[in-house]
């Protein structure tokens, strides 16, 4: 059945904004719940998109939102905070809401490295949520496991670029940690393609970009792309642990001990990118937003940061 009405949980976030735009271009009616509608006002201007104030942690509210929908997409994910609630309990509630509302189609965002035996709480909670939706055999479920996503407004490469702007020396924790960054637009395209593809039911798709990097290589690459000559130093394990312990106490929590534990597992995949999509290379995309060349290029980024 073609999905004409879709509920996107986490639709106001980084990946969500790109997926919602993809669905809007297809003239699909999209509902995006948000605790504060003001935070999602960048989506309100999109045709066919309805942003509603709602607390999806309330099971009754979640069931009400799912009614009359053709599909539900769960993009909710956090890097700090109550992992169990966001990554494990919410997917269980989503499954229950889909059953109660009669919605069969469910797309779920997991993560590379999700593992119930993983070293970090993030990985273990992601695995629990993935297990909850995959065990719902009465639903048509598709699971996506992306590597770290990059693109305009990301909190990954942009963070390194901001650090390189002010710091002459960059101390990189877990410098040999491996990543396979994937362009956010490619993730959104894959999810949109899966929505009406019956062959994707009960499938798990791992999404990675065309190249692997160590974390130290990524920081060096960002410095190169932003044309800032900086000394990049890889920290030994003991110093990486100490840095994580110290930074998680500071506002913004640039790094936590749970993040450190996650980086002990390679964030990579050998699976081909699905649906015939050729993933874009970081080097082809990142320069356009890491090093704006003029007001025309800077304006979209300023608008996004101001949520306008």
Strand-residue proportion: 15-25%
Count of separate structural domains? 2
Unreliable stretches (pLDDT < 50, length at least 5) are: 294-305
Helix content, binned percent: 40-55%
Q: Enumerate the strands of the largest sheet in spatial order, edge to edge or round the barrel.
A: 3-2-1-4-5-6-11
Number of helices: 13
Largest sheet: 7 strands, parallel
| SS-derived structural category | alpha/beta
The assigned CATH architecture of the largest domain is 3-Layer(aba) Sandwich
Structure description:
The chain is an alpha/beta fold and 308 residues long. It folds into two domains: 5-150 and 181-207, Rossmann fold (3-Layer(aba) Sandwich); 157-178 and 211-267 and 281-303. It contains 13 helices and 13 strands. The protein has helices spanning 14-25, 41-44, 59-66, 83-101, 121-134, 157-166, 184-195, 215-225, 237-247, 257-262, 282-285, 287-290, 295-305; strands at 5-9, 29-34, 49-53, 71-74, 105-109, 140-146, 149-150, 169-172, 178-179, 182-183, 203-207, 213-214, 231-234. Strands 3-2-1-4-5-6-11 form a seven-stranded parallel β-sheet, with helices on both faces. The chain has a two-stranded parallel ribbon with strand order 7-10. Strands 8-13 form a two-stranded parallel sheet. Strand 2 (29-34), helix 2 (41-44) and strand 3 (49-53) form a beta-alpha-beta unit. Helix 3 crosses helix 4 (83-101) and helix 6 crosses helix 8. It is globular. The model is unreliable at 294-305 (pLDDT under 50).
